Amino acid sequence: MKANEEKNPEATKKRLLDAAEEIFSERGYAAATVREITARGACNVAAVNYHYGGKEALYREVFQRRLRALRDLRIRRIREYMEAPGAEPGLEGLLKAFVDAFLEPLMDRSRGTLFFRLMTQEILDPQLPEGMVFQEMIGPIQATMGGALQRVAPALSGEAVRRCMFSVVGQLLHVTFYLRLLAKTEGQAGSREEVRAVLDHIVRFSLGGMLATMEETS
To answer: What's the pTM value of the predicted model, to 2 decimals?
Structure first.
């Protein structure tokens, strides 16, 4: 182990995670090598085993870091909106807070693109333990957003809430894939104004659908 790695293990672990995220997103799990990861991270080859116990555990930690960050951001934004002083939370405002929190990190030109490529590699060649993505990110977000939806729209049943969330997330994922495809094939990802207009449309469209659903059940 290099002397500087022994003195600052947290910095070493971060360099390893950053380098591994880049290489796994470029090559996928199978083609990535520990030697390549440690070379890019300026670490000793033994650092992967020392800090993570091997390539497989490093791969899981790369995902867990990003999944937790996305989870925490989205849950925090939902709670900030719901607990903001001076105003009663409403359905439209909640949808806007969720939509913004969902797409904001994915629109980052560097880390957002990296995570998108990483997820694509995992879809093509699954390596993560079954249920990990749901446990680390999807489940907690669903629980928080579902509870908030039932508070601002009590007329929605639990099943209606679940379906409405699938609809909103489906629209956001489609926008994300489309923007990435546009950037790759046309060299442009759309201006912030264009993206904002699409997000506002998703909010209005989803709001209309949820209001119609509540009218049907009233």
So the answer is: 0.85
